[in-house]
Amino acid sequence: SNMPNYKLTYFPVKALAEPARFVFSYGGIPFEDDRFNRDDWPKIKPTMPFGQVPVLEVDGKKYAQSVAITRYVAKQVGLAGKNDLEALEIDSIVDSIHDLRLKIGAFHYETNEEVKAAKENIAKEQVPFYLERLDAQVKNNGGYFVGGALTWADLTFVALLDYLNFMWKSDLIEKYDNLKQLKEKVLSLPAIKSWVEKRPQSEC
Fold first, then answer.
1. What is the pLDDT at residue 2?
2. Cβ(156)–Cβ(182) under 8 Å?
3. A GO biological process this protein is involved in (predicted)?
4. Closest CA to 203 of 18, 22, 8, 32
5. Among 24, 53, 96, 122, fewest CB within 10 Å belongs to which?
Protein backbone atom coordinates (compact mmCIF):
# COMPACT_ATOMS: atom_id res chain seq x y z
CA SER A 1 0.00 0.00 0.00
CA ASN A 2 1.15 3.55 -0.63
CA MET A 3 2.49 5.57 2.25
CA PRO A 4 -0.15 7.94 3.63
CA ASN A 5 0.14 11.67 3.27
CA TYR A 6 1.19 13.17 6.62
CA LYS A 7 0.78 16.77 7.74
CA LEU A 8 1.76 17.83 11.27
CA THR A 9 0.34 21.20 12.34
CA TYR A 10 1.72 23.20 15.28
CA PHE A 11 2.95 26.58 16.47
CA PRO A 12 6.34 27.65 15.04
CA VAL A 13 8.25 25.99 17.92
CA LYS A 14 9.61 22.57 18.94
CA ALA A 15 7.76 21.90 22.22
CA LEU A 16 5.00 19.27 21.94
CA ALA A 17 5.33 18.55 18.21
CA GLU A 18 9.05 17.81 18.33
CA PRO A 19 8.78 14.18 19.55
CA ALA A 20 6.67 13.27 16.49
CA ARG A 21 9.03 15.24 14.21
CA PHE A 22 11.97 13.26 15.68
CA VAL A 23 10.21 9.93 15.08
CA PHE A 24 9.18 10.84 11.51
CA SER A 25 12.77 11.92 10.82
CA TYR A 26 14.27 8.80 12.38
CA GLY A 27 12.04 6.61 10.22
CA GLY A 28 12.74 8.60 7.07
CA ILE A 29 9.01 9.21 6.65
CA PRO A 30 8.20 12.36 4.68
CA PHE A 31 5.74 14.71 6.41
CA GLU A 32 4.56 18.26 5.90
CA ASP A 33 5.87 20.29 8.83
CA ASP A 34 3.09 22.87 9.00
CA ARG A 35 4.03 25.74 11.36
CA PHE A 36 1.44 28.50 11.47
CA ASN A 37 1.95 32.09 12.51
CA ARG A 38 0.74 32.67 16.09
CA ASP A 39 -1.48 35.51 14.86
CA ASP A 40 -3.44 32.99 12.79
CA TRP A 41 -4.20 30.72 15.76
CA PRO A 42 -7.69 32.18 16.47
CA LYS A 43 -8.66 31.26 12.88
CA ILE A 44 -7.06 27.80 13.03
CA LYS A 45 -8.24 26.80 16.53
CA PRO A 46 -11.91 26.11 15.60
CA THR A 47 -10.77 23.82 12.74
CA MET A 48 -8.88 21.50 15.12
CA PRO A 49 -10.65 18.44 16.63
CA PHE A 50 -10.23 19.56 20.27
CA GLY A 51 -9.24 23.17 19.63
CA GLN A 52 -5.58 22.45 20.26
CA VAL A 53 -2.38 21.43 18.50
CA PRO A 54 -0.33 19.48 17.54
CA VAL A 55 -2.65 17.77 15.10
CA LEU A 56 -1.62 15.09 12.63
CA GLU A 57 -3.50 14.81 9.36
CA VAL A 58 -3.33 11.37 7.77
CA ASP A 59 -4.66 11.54 4.20
CA GLY A 60 -6.69 14.60 5.21
CA LYS A 61 -8.21 13.22 8.43
CA LYS A 62 -7.20 15.09 11.59
CA TYR A 63 -6.01 13.42 14.81
CA ALA A 64 -5.28 15.29 18.06
CA GLN A 65 -3.05 14.68 21.12
CA SER A 66 0.74 14.80 20.91
CA VAL A 67 1.44 11.52 22.73
CA ALA A 68 -1.09 9.56 20.66
CA ILE A 69 0.37 11.05 17.47
CA THR A 70 3.96 10.21 18.46
CA ARG A 71 2.98 6.66 19.46
CA TYR A 72 1.25 6.12 16.10
CA VAL A 73 4.31 7.28 14.15
CA ALA A 74 6.56 5.14 16.39
CA LYS A 75 4.49 2.07 15.45
CA GLN A 76 5.02 2.85 11.77
CA VAL A 77 8.81 2.92 12.22
CA GLY A 78 9.21 0.02 14.66
CA LEU A 79 10.07 2.07 17.76
CA ALA A 80 7.04 1.10 19.87
CA GLY A 81 8.48 -1.97 21.61
CA LYS A 82 8.96 -5.62 20.71
CA ASN A 83 5.76 -6.75 22.48
CA ASP A 84 2.84 -5.44 24.55
CA LEU A 85 4.80 -5.50 27.80
CA GLU A 86 7.60 -3.37 26.33
CA ALA A 87 4.96 -1.07 24.87
CA LEU A 88 3.48 -0.74 28.38
CA GLU A 89 6.88 0.19 29.83
CA ILE A 90 7.48 2.73 27.05
CA ASP A 91 4.03 4.27 27.62
CA SER A 92 4.67 4.47 31.34
CA ILE A 93 8.00 6.27 30.80
CA VAL A 94 6.49 8.66 28.23
CA ASP A 95 3.61 9.50 30.59
CA SER A 96 6.13 10.14 33.39
CA ILE A 97 8.16 12.44 31.11
CA HIS A 98 4.97 14.42 30.42
CA ASP A 99 4.16 14.51 34.15
CA LEU A 100 7.60 16.06 34.65
CA ARG A 101 6.78 18.57 31.89
CA LEU A 102 3.50 19.49 33.61
CA LYS A 103 5.26 20.07 36.96
CA ILE A 104 7.67 22.47 35.24
CA GLY A 105 4.94 24.07 33.15
CA ALA A 106 2.75 24.64 36.23
CA PHE A 107 5.02 27.40 37.50
CA HIS A 108 6.42 28.55 34.14
CA TYR A 109 2.95 29.51 32.85
CA GLU A 110 1.63 30.88 36.17
CA THR A 111 1.03 34.66 36.00
CA ASN A 112 0.26 35.33 39.67
CA GLU A 113 3.72 35.94 41.21
CA GLU A 114 2.85 34.60 44.67
CA VAL A 115 1.30 31.43 43.30
CA LYS A 116 4.21 31.11 40.87
CA ALA A 117 6.76 31.18 43.72
CA ALA A 118 4.83 28.47 45.58
CA LYS A 119 4.59 26.30 42.46
CA GLU A 120 8.29 26.80 41.76
CA ASN A 121 9.16 25.55 45.27
CA ILE A 122 7.02 22.46 44.69
CA ALA A 123 8.69 21.88 41.31
CA LYS A 124 12.16 22.21 42.87
CA GLU A 125 11.32 19.19 45.05
CA GLN A 126 9.45 17.18 42.43
CA VAL A 127 11.70 17.66 39.41
CA PRO A 128 14.79 15.92 40.90
CA PHE A 129 12.50 13.10 42.06
CA TYR A 130 11.51 12.43 38.42
CA LEU A 131 14.99 12.96 36.99
CA GLU A 132 16.61 10.54 39.46
CA ARG A 133 14.16 7.84 38.44
CA LEU A 134 14.47 8.51 34.72
CA ASP A 135 18.27 8.48 35.04
CA ALA A 136 18.17 5.14 36.90
CA GLN A 137 15.81 3.72 34.28
CA VAL A 138 18.39 4.45 31.56
CA LYS A 139 21.24 3.11 33.72
CA ASN A 140 19.37 -0.16 34.38
CA ASN A 141 18.26 -0.70 30.77
CA GLY A 142 21.51 -0.69 28.86
CA GLY A 143 21.66 3.02 28.14
CA TYR A 144 18.07 3.43 26.90
CA PHE A 145 14.75 3.80 28.69
CA VAL A 146 13.34 0.40 27.71
CA GLY A 147 14.71 -2.96 26.59
CA GLY A 148 18.29 -1.84 25.97
CA ALA A 149 17.34 -0.38 22.59
CA LEU A 150 16.11 2.86 21.06
CA THR A 151 12.35 3.50 21.37
CA TRP A 152 10.09 6.51 21.04
CA ALA A 153 10.51 7.09 24.80
CA ASP A 154 14.15 8.06 24.17
CA LEU A 155 13.23 10.26 21.21
CA THR A 156 10.42 11.89 23.22
CA PHE A 157 12.70 12.81 26.10
CA VAL A 158 15.47 14.27 23.96
CA ALA A 159 13.04 16.05 21.62
CA LEU A 160 11.36 17.76 24.61
CA LEU A 161 14.59 18.79 26.36
CA ASP A 162 14.95 22.20 24.68
CA TYR A 163 11.39 23.06 25.72
CA LEU A 164 11.88 21.74 29.27
CA ASN A 165 15.19 23.59 29.68
CA PHE A 166 13.57 26.76 28.33
CA MET A 167 10.84 26.58 31.01
CA TRP A 168 13.26 25.48 33.76
CA LYS A 169 15.75 28.22 32.74
CA SER A 170 18.74 25.89 33.16
CA ASP A 171 20.06 22.52 32.01
CA LEU A 172 17.72 19.97 33.61
CA ILE A 173 20.02 16.99 33.11
CA GLU A 174 23.31 18.63 34.09
CA LYS A 175 23.76 16.30 37.10
CA TYR A 176 22.37 13.16 35.46
CA ASP A 177 25.06 11.30 33.54
CA ASN A 178 22.86 8.56 32.08
CA LEU A 179 20.37 11.09 30.71
CA LYS A 180 23.25 13.17 29.32
CA GLN A 181 24.65 10.10 27.54
CA LEU A 182 21.19 9.27 26.20
CA LYS A 183 20.88 12.81 24.81
CA GLU A 184 24.28 12.51 23.07
CA LYS A 185 23.34 9.11 21.63
CA VAL A 186 20.02 10.32 20.23
CA LEU A 187 21.43 13.56 18.81
CA SER A 188 24.24 11.67 17.08
CA LEU A 189 21.84 9.37 15.16
CA PRO A 190 22.40 10.44 11.52
CA ALA A 191 18.69 11.00 10.77
CA ILE A 192 18.17 13.03 13.96
CA LYS A 193 21.39 15.00 13.45
CA SER A 194 20.25 15.90 9.95
CA TRP A 195 16.75 16.90 11.18
CA VAL A 196 18.19 19.12 13.95
CA GLU A 197 20.48 20.83 11.42
CA LYS A 198 17.72 21.60 8.93
CA ARG A 199 14.71 22.33 11.18
CA PRO A 200 13.59 25.95 11.62
CA GLN A 201 15.33 27.63 14.56
CA SER A 202 13.21 28.44 17.62
CA GLU A 203 13.89 29.15 21.28
CA CYS A 204 11.73 26.31 22.54
1. 83
2. no
3. glutathione metabolic process
4. 18
5. 122
| pLDDT band, very low/low/confident/very high, at 186 (cuts 50, 70, 90) | very high
- What's the pTM value of the predicted model, to 2 decimals? 0.97
Name the helix (H) or strand (E) containing 85.
Answer: helix 84-108
Classify 136 in phi/psi space as left (phi over 0), alpha (psi -120 to 50) or beta: alpha
Residue pair 177/135 in contact (Cβ under 8 Å)? The answer is yes
- Calpha distance 202→37 (Å, rounded): 13
* Positions of E strands within the chain: 6-10, 32-35, 55-58, 61-64
CATH 1.20.1050.10 residue ranges in the chain? 84-188
Pick the CATH number of 6-77+191-198 from 3.40.50.1820, 3.40.30.10, 3.30.1160.10, 3.10.310.40: 3.40.30.10
Beta strand ranges found along 13-105 (DSSP E): 32-35, 55-58, 61-64
